[in-house]
């Protein structure tokens, strides 16, 4: 009761003092206000980004934890890392061992074997096909076919030339580019075709070596491949959703392509330009004002031929009539098409809708459609190119993350991955040993390589004379790789190699506990593997949020240090000014804690007021930002935001943390000068002048 | 008569740079309960030091000071503070009111520090004293809204509100004009008569001195004169 009264009078003194020194209060208060507001805004934004990103990362590839080989040179970086090429993250030689080792660990929903590599997607380009026809015609001396193939080849080369020239804008003209252009112009000249008539095979050589490699239209696209147990993957990564087509049936080989990858890298250029325009128009830009939109519009007109390339006569007619009815006049199809693609603010939305309803069904939007096969090539671990023909079963995206970077990986069955990676299956090992017997090589381990290779009595060296031949070379030479088309079983999937494995948890809150349990289980089974949380497995992306937090923290430390110094000074000055008052209070019977509390309460009062106001203001601002979302202006931001807009969420925890930090800072800033104040002697009361 | 203050061979030294100032050089004095005593002397004579020793604001270098029978030298800071709170009342030269509190709150403050009284009791106590010092109409004013004399009246009320055994006043009239100063001493004497509270005040003003019942004159840290005389007005 009495303590309460004393406290009440202390609060009264504190508040009154704050009021009478309002300028000082205002300055200290503003610093604390901005500090807390900034903290609330910063950590809410980062928290929201973290959430968005973790969703993108965790629910598409990494799961909550990743397991991979311990002590490797590189670390797992599934969303971009520092190293170029394929990082050396070791391997899990037999995934089954891992499954067995961690069997029974609680909170584990599933463990999915994985392996990633960079692949090259190639499907015969139109130019390749035309050249193939030309070659057949030359061999068969088929004049009719020759004429038709020549016309197509020339047409495609014209496109290529135009394309290369348009791409030159703003680019340095290298010797190589110059040579390419010269070759194209030559191949299109009358001279060339006169020569061709005289000596077709020799000139075909020129086309094959100098022109064909230039034809890039969809023929070579890099893609990130994630080889996994597709059946499990689909079950465990619940947001996975088929957009078009069907999942790869169990036991079959096949490819699943992420929606955005196909849209951004494989779609017909004209359609892609239209999509880009749509996005920009939706963002509120207009053709009249926006340079980027104008450039896209010009590009669509330039690229119009890409819509015409492989139209058969029937579709060409259909296209022509569609264009004629839309434009309300007759004319040649390419002329109509160019006019059709001249887009401005007035006709854009109509054209865009019309394009997808009437034109798109007639033309080929993607070089590879669902149900077709493509060739995927990749380098094995030791650097040999392997290829696999895969059927594209479906296009997928992730529910609620359609606009994010969640689908950066093309999915492929793990059996195919193992082949591309150069792992040896049991069957291959058998064949290999037969082969070895035939050729006469024994395995040469590193520890006895010298003896084996140079030892005088070694039969190996004397008899065969071969140096150490790598398994890859053997396999490449023997054609063992061509195992495609065969069905495989669950056991095949589980008993082979994986590079890493995703662990999906029942309850993600227990991530660290489960990590420890898994780690113990793995160590217990003597497997040289490590278990890392998704942040560490995501590479650059995972570290990004940590880096952002670090920057925020650094900024906050500076602001709070500033607050600390200013407050400290203010309190010191205040104690000096009020020496007489302190002395008086001590003389009339106030104990030391009373004085301490008097000053602490004063700063606490500012801190609480300014802190609460700051946290609320910060929260309000974040709330305001969340109304329309923060637009992602660049692709990097789209990645960070997990979509085109970030809708930040204020967390009460952030607000409370900010408040607590502010209170601690104020306490620290006040405590020491206030303790000094308690040492003021009552005698001081006698000296004071009013 | 029973002694309330006993000062026995007290010496007090202050370090002042390299030299030591001997403020009191062996002073012995006994003050009886209910006395109205002035400690007089020119500035630097040691009267404030003596008051501080009596007021438990300071402790002697040598010798003993007994306040209500208890020796101050052996007490902790907390005990001294407690003694000041419960047995002493202070009136300062510069009034020393808490500027942000109203008159009422200033006077109530020692009661709050003491604890033990209900809100009603505290209010009654404060009101009674404010009435006695004649400032009832200003009870909710802040110190800065009051004149010097009024402030010193508030200070007297604050010093008396806990019903202390001894009230110490350090040059209570120094910052007041002589008429107001005399009024203040009159008020103190009235309070003293009514409650038989022991009053000790220091002064160098002969006019004020004459209002005391007993005058202890200090010169250079020693008692030069100790006179008990009947009060002569004017």
Poorly predicted spans of chain A: 455-469, 476-484
- Can you list the strand order of the major beta sheet of chain B? 6-7-8-3-9-10
Q: What would you call the quaternary organization? A: heterodimer
Q: Give the strand tally of chain B.
A: 10
Major sheet details of chain A: 6 strands, mixed, barrel
The major sheet of chain B is characterized as: 6 strands, mixed
N-to-C span of chain B: 29 Å
- Radius of gyration computed on alpha carbons of chain A: 35 Å
Largest interchain contact: A-B, 33 and 37 residues
What structural class is derived from the secondary structure elements of chain B?
Answer: alpha/beta
- In helices, the fraction of residues of chain B equals 25-40%
Determine the number of helices of chain A (DSSP H or I, runs of at least 4 residues). Answer: 29
Shape annotation of chain B: globular
How does this model look, in words?
The complex is a heterodimer of chains A (690) and B (234). Chain A is built from 29 helices and 12 strands. A 6-stranded mixed barrel of chain A has the order 2-3-8-5-7-6. Chain A has a two-stranded antiparallel ribbon with strand order 11-12. In chain A, helix 4 packs antiparallel against helix 5, helix 4 runs antiparallel to helix 8 and helix 5 packs antiparallel against helix 6 (175-188). Chain A starts with a helix and ends with a helix. Mean pLDDT of chain A is 82; it is low at 455-469 and 476-484. Chain B has helices at 47-54, 77-87, 103-114, 119-132, 148-160, 178-195, 206-209, and strands spanning 3-16, 19-32, 36-40, 62-67, 70-71, 88-91, 166-170, 198-203, 214-219, 222-228. Chain B has 7 helices and 10 strands. In chain B, the strands form 2 sheets. In chain B, strands 6-7-8-3-9-10 form a 6-stranded mixed beta sheet, with helices on both faces. In chain B, strands 2-1-4-5 form a 4-stranded antiparallel beta sheet. The interface between A and B is medium-sized, with 33 and 37 residues.
